[in-house]
Amino acid sequence: MRKFVAAKHKHTLMHYGYIKIATAIPNLTVANCGYNIERIEVMMRQAENQDAQIVCFPELCITAYTCGDLFHQQALIEEAETALHNLLDKTQNLDIISIVGMPVKSRDRLFNCGIVIQKGKILAVVPKTHLPNYHEFYEKRWFTSSLHALDENIILAGQKVPFGTQLLIGTTTFRFGIEICEDLWVTIPPSSLHTLSGAHLIFNLSASNETIGKNEYIKSLIAQQSARCISGYVYVSSGFGESTQDVVFAGKSIFAENGKIITESERFLIDEQLTISEIDIDLLKNERQMNSSFTQDGFSLFDSTPKYRLIDCEILSSKAFHLTRPYSPTPFIPAGPVLDARCEEILAIQITGLVQRINHTKLTKAVIGISGGLDSTLALLVTTLAFDKLSIPRENIIGVTMPGFGTTSRTLNNAKQLMKSLQCSIREIDITEASLLHFKDLDHNPEIHDVTYENTQARERTQLLMDIANKENGLVIGTGDLSELALGWCTYNGDHMSMYAVNSGVPKTLVKYLVQWAANHKMNQNSALTLKDILNTPVSPELLPKNEQDDITQKTEEIIGPYELHDFFLYYMIRYGFRPNKIRFLATQAFHNKYSAADIQKWLTLFINRFFSQQFKRSCMPDGPKVGTINLSPRGDWRMPSDADKTLWMEIDR
Length: 654
Prior knowledge:
Shape: elongated
Enzyme class: ligase
Function: Catalyzes the ATP-dependent amidation of deamido-NAD to form NAD. Uses L-glutamine as a nitrogen source.
CATH superfamily of the largest domain: HUPs
Distance between the termini: 17 Å
Keywords: ATP-binding, Ligase, NAD, Nucleotide-binding
Number of strands: 20
Pathway: Cofactor biosynthesis; NAD(+) biosynthesis; NAD(+) from deamido-NAD(+) (L-Gln route): step 1/1
Oligomer: single chain
Radius of gyration: 30 Å
Binding site for deamido-NAD(+): 455, 484, 489-492, 617
CATH topology of the largest domain: Rossmann fold
Strand content: 15-25%
Structural class: alpha/beta
Largest sheet: 7 strands, mixed
């Protein structure tokens, strides 16, 4: 077995695919361009000092957005260009890419533009396309839409620069595009075309005033657009210093990535704000690669494919190693009140899947092995609720508890008490004698507690369940979960097999939350009390003998590692296709207060080993409902050869 190669040096965030972004909301003075660029320069330097590679400012920040008819004053427009020239001179020594807003005149037309600058040079000028002219907005009074631009290049601050909306800036591996405020609100935002043409990240320079409920609506627009475009989306809006004659600007920054808001700033501050976070470009690229609908006929709605110009620039190599954005150690479990709704929805999916299978087979009995553990408990709850939905008597559910060498009084009593409280039919079949007879047939010493000792019991239990189902004309309901399938922590042709596996799409870390939710919302008091004790029972297959104190000795997580780590590894390996070194890096960020780097590497090694070696079990797993974005069914989401080589994944620093 090849070992992980120890890291010889720390990588930068760019090695892991991140771009560090800053948004800056300076305090402005309306129509005082000199003062405004002083504040912009200060915040540019602050952003670079904090290792940001790109910093974006609000719409028209050099003049301020609320100048009104002063935009028709020649003095203001000329002063804005002079101020830009001064800003370029003062920041020639800065590597950071900065995006600022100002009015730009071209062919006697005035455009509301985003200006991309770096090292004293203007890289691109992007004019606004959609000009709001309703309610409090009068932009068509002052500005012209980019649709009426006549030039592809203009002279600005003494430099000849690219001009237009179809400009993508970046390197050969990363590109970003720009849209301005109202551009996001229209039916087909420019960013849709930007991303179809190769932009991974969109910056929106905005000056959106506050009204009741508007902030939540803007967040939903940003999240949805980043999801549709499978992109990063960084939004920054004007704050303190804009005129409050008729409206108020609260100043806000919002960072989104593929449909999720990852960072946002506080609103209504009177101080300047610099907000920094990272966008995972690797994640976006992999998601686009897997999503075959992203570019398929992407331009079919348009008369012709827009021709974009690619503007090359240097991306400052961030020296930072620590992420500023948080990563949850439990990616399968949403935080906050949404968890209740998620649990309800998952149970509904599981129940509906089983209801359809029962309708199709015309079988009205179910057989489940009940161990007193979490997985079999969840399967029993799902089956009970499915039978209720079909108005089938619960007594048609045959719960079978099969104590063996490792079964403790606690788990056995919990199994029987749960079945009793749910009014299921209860059967108890001790497998000890049958297992000893099988050992005798195999000429196996029962004092040798090896894989034969364990798997004999698992297969004996499955055989009983299958035969009872045949006799009773019922379905064997599988209890194994998604995490066990990933690790192959199941006995081939033992608990690996069933007639419908209701838990096969549920990761282990989520199982207990589903059981807890069912206990609180769907069960009677007696059932809820038993469920609470089951929730506090250590995870174990109970295949090794218990100790003299009648306690569990075989604790799964002591053998194969913490399930919370394995679920974390599973999520980022399968959902986003991340390299092992990036998964390790993210795990050290998410679990920095709980597991050492050595422990994370140890369990990641085990995870990869088992994931590759145990694919043969997943290749013939029974039917079961998909409930989340990750599923390992060979008929659905995961098609992997059982003899694939793991060498590449074991080179962690590759």
